[in-house]
Amino acid sequence: MMADMQDADIIDRVATSTGLPVNVAARVVEDVLAFYRQSTEQYVRDRHTELQTAGKKNPEIFPQIAGELRRRLVAAPPLSERQLRRIVYG
């Protein structure tokens, strides 16, 4: 796992502010950044699968995902329930 230079600043900050060893801080930062680097489409597909596995049904899932997308660090554009379905089912 090789962080780029910009990530190194974040890693140093997390290590300093939390007291974590640099290698642990690097794993935490890379995990968070990987989460936010997901495309909207991949996030929707993955989250749909997670919520289905948790026993939720589509009428609950799609409004929940739409709300989550609005709160992401870099918000996705507003997507209708129909657009979300098309991402999941093609």
Notes on the structure:
The chain folds into 2 domains: 5-37, no CATH class; 40-89, no CATH class. Helices cover 74% and strands 0% of the residues. With 90 residues, the chain is an all-alpha fold. Helix 1 crosses helix 2 (22-37) and helix 3 (40-53) packs across helix 4. The protein has 5 helices and no strands.
Number of helices: 5
Radius of gyration, rounded? 16 Å
Reading the helices and strands in chain order gives HHHHH
Determine the strand fraction and express it as a percent band.
Answer: under 5%
Low-confidence stretches: none
The structural class is mainly alpha
Q: What is the β-strand count?
A: 0
Provide mean pLDDT, rounded: 90
Q: What is the CA–CA distance across the termini?
A: 33 Å
The tally of structural domains comes to 2
Helix content: over 70%
Q: Could you give a short account of the major beta sheet?
A: none
Shape: elongated
What is the secondary structure topology, with strand pairs?
Elements lengths: L4 H14 L3 H16 L2 H14 L4 H14 L9 H9 L1
